[in-house]
Amino acid sequence: MGIPERREREKEKLRRKIMDAARTLFVEHGVEQTSMRKIAEAIEYSPTAIYLHFADKEALLREICREDFSSLTQAEIAAGDISDPVQRIRQIGMAYMTFGVQHPQHYRLMFMRRVKVVPVEEDLRRIGDPSHDGYAVLRHVVIGALEAGRFRENFTDPDVICQTLWAGVHGAVALEITMCDDPWLTMAPFEVRANAILDVLIAGMCKEAGA
Amino acid sequence: MGIPERREREKEKLRRKIMDAARTLFVEHGVEQTSMRKIAEAIEYSPTAIYLHFADKEALLREICREDFSSLTQAEIAAGDISDPVQRIRQIGMAYMTFGVQHPQHYRLMFMRRVKVVPVEEDLRRIGDPSHDGYAVLRHVVIGALEAGRFRENFTDPDVICQTLWAGVHGAVALEITMCDDPWLTMAPFEVRANAILDVLIAGMCKEAGA
DNA sequence: TTGATTTAATTAACACTGTTTACTAATTTT
DNA sequence: AAAATTAGTAAACAGTGTTAATTAAATCAA
Q1: Nearest CA distance, B125 vs chain A (angstrom)
Q2: CA distances from residue B202 to A106, B15, B100, B209 in whole angstroms, order as listed
Q3: What are the pLDDT digits (tens) for A113-152?
């Protein structure tokens, strides 16, 4: 009696279809410009059909982000495959920024919108799990460098270190995304700025030897 | 014959009234949540009246930002009143971040939204003018420190230096604004993070002596 | 194989949004 | 006083997220 199972599969299939179409439209035209009706049109369903799978637009957005966080985390993990702990931090930072500028709309969704604080239980369980939590990946590597004595004496708290590194790379990405075509400013090429901020972060936090 | 002058004054007066009401509502409830109708209601005019003074909501927003940029610039100038060029950079950075966390909604308008690129001639004329251009203020101070030989050898381009400093402080503020109440993360107190990023930026860019 | 029941999906509507058009009332000019 | 300019408005348009009411389809029980 596999009828409920089949129905479940079909339901999941439509759910996927909605998320894929929504992501494509969000990325292509931005969140604001993408209406529920347009998403519905793309999948050839009525707008109300979406509400059978997601509570509202915000919830749909949140689910998409959850998936995108995983890909960023994977990119970080791949970049962390290098021996020297300080260089590992640099690689992770560069992977993060590359993700940001290559997927600016994804990045906007993930890190540049006020999140409605609805802590789903499943999310909370993932905290600290390095296969889903990008912050945990960085934190792990930072602790490694910390234990190897690579940081200056005034940097001992792994969270402060992580959040300082994050501030630097996030700032570079966020400015690029929002300011890149502002006529007020003449921005240096992103690659230059990305390397500069990494140089500064590492030179500022780590002992001279590890340069 | 002061009739046109009087009319001009009255027009300007309503314009001010619109901008003040709009700013208050934007800051209090956010841009998205503030409709033109609500602004109109606040000033006891019809929604259409706003369109006699501003082309659209975006233009109204832009005018408000222009004013806010000036206050930020003033805060920077006030913070720059200190002799040592490196400490001056630190003070400016701290003033910038303080402005951001104390006026998060203003900051959102100014630095966290994609700007429709409509370069008004008057704006373009203000570029580089330190009384209206906050970036120019920083740039001036950076060049001062550069001439005093306070930067490391690998930092010679004032724009790259400015934009790296900016990335750092913007990252700290932006993360604070968007992430402060995310249950996923346990953020260190903002003051700690603000000082940490300033320490890192300066230690990473400046010669050891200037610590 | 019926009839009842659950499920999936839709149509139509509600209460909004930014913005425009057509109009009115007031003021200024001739 | 009549004409012309102006400030301001009401009503409407096209679109938004979302919900209530309704239909069509599939499944289950008899």
Answers
A1: 10
A2: 32, 43, 20, 11
A3: 887 666 677 777 888 888 778 999 999 999 999 999 999 9
